[in-house]
Amino acid sequence: MSQPQTVQVVGAGLIGTSIALGLREHGVDVFIDDVDPDHIRAAVERGAGGAGHAPEPDIVVVAVPPSDVVATVNKALDRWPDAVVTDVASVKSEIAAAVSGSLEAKRYVGSHPMAGRERSGPVAASARLFEGRPWVLVPLDETLDSAVESVRDIADLLRAAPTVMDASTHDRAVALVSHVPQVLSVLAAAQLASAPEEHVALAGQGLRDVTRIAASDPALWADILASNASEVGAILRDVRDDLDSVITALQDDPALVASVLESGRAGTSVIPGKHGDHPVALTAVYVVVADRPRELERVIADAGQSGVNIEDLRIQHELGRPAGVVEIYVLPKHADVLVTSLVARGWPAYR
Questions:
Q1: 1: closest CA among 151, 127, 144?
Q2: CB–CB of 70/149 below 8 Å?
Q3: Residue 150, SS3?
Q4: Which helix (H) or strand (E) segment is 342 a member of?
């Protein structure tokens, strides 16, 4: 892996600023620009590099909203004739079609780091945002291998997991694993807006899991969905057909409802698990923890004393009480050992 000397980031939002912060930690000379001066100021104050334009960058990273990507990529290819240009947009086909066939296509590499947060803007950025996350490289037929390797080096430097796809395959994939889940989360959350308060008060972790990403930036997501409308629409039509079947079957065909539920469970079994391995069945051990400083630290430390490895962890706050329930996920064969160990240390633990 080689390291770029100078990188120009165009767009000081969450992704652009996070890339800049990560590169600066490795000593890369970074310049960052944005149409919003407040974004530039905030990014620079965070330590994302210098404001403005690099004279001769090795790589230009375009991190602007999807509707502005094509124009900004073409402008960057013209402005910096010796630089490799990449973008981080979540939809690639339109950009690939616009650049392919041009004299500068050999210097262009589409890319898409599969990372984000519900919050947006430079203040939400983090140098650690991409660690362990897929980073898709989407070269054109004309793209030089050296240009692809330059962008791969950035992904490696930020500890992402680079993989290569063509533009159409990428857009189908992200529609399935990112864009449609966003729409479904939003639709579920929208049902809550006019619900009686006493109904919403019954919400548990399941509802929070389903609706968490619905809090994301609506304007950004409207742009993303419009850019990938064909692929998203095709999957949503399949979802609509399943919904229609379930609605019809609820009254008189429980077997069909059960079949749909089982298909959902089968779908979860193919989602990559820990470290990208095949998913493994886990068991939750529940521990009631007081809502005061260092209690979570104590329960994790005491769990470690059991010799059982913690595979995952979640926290639920109890309604109307200054306490929460920590869900510690372990391999099923270790659950009883962990419960016994925690109870012996005074924790109200159960499975």
A1: 151
A2: no
A3: helix
A4: helix 335-344
Residue 54: which H helix or E strand, with range?
none
333 neighbors 301 (Cβ within 8 angstroms) = no
Judge if 147 and 177 occupy the same domain: no
Number of domains within the chain: 3
CATH code (residue 312): 3.30.70.260
* Cα gap 331→282, rounded to integer Å: 5
In whole angstroms, what separates CA 293 from the centre of its chain?
A: 30
Give the gyration radius of the chain's Cα atoms. 23
CA 241 centroid distance within chain: 28
Residue 123 covered by a domain: yes
Listed residue (312, 291, 316, 292) closest to 303, CA to CA: 312
Domain of 78 in residue numbering reads as 6-165
Round to whole Å and give the CA distance between 239 and 247.
Answer: 12
Task: Tell me: pLDDT of 317 over 90.
Answer: no
Instruction: Give strand ranges (E) for 99-254.
Output: 108-113, 134-139, 161-164
With bands split at pLDDT 50, 70 and 90, how would you rate the model's confidence at 6?
A: very high
pTM: 0.82
User: Does residue 274 form part of some domain?
Assistant: no
* Per-residue tokens: 273: 């698990």
pLDDT of 273: 62
Same domain, 80 and 19: yes
Average pLDDT over residues 333-345: 92
User: HSE (CB half, 13 Å, CA atoms) of 272?
Assistant: 8
- CATH code assigned at 231: 1.10.3660.10
Query: Can you tell me which residue has the tokens 């330590």?
Result: 47
**135: which 2 tokens?**
């980073």
- The number of CA neighbours under 13 Å toward the Cβ of 44 is 13
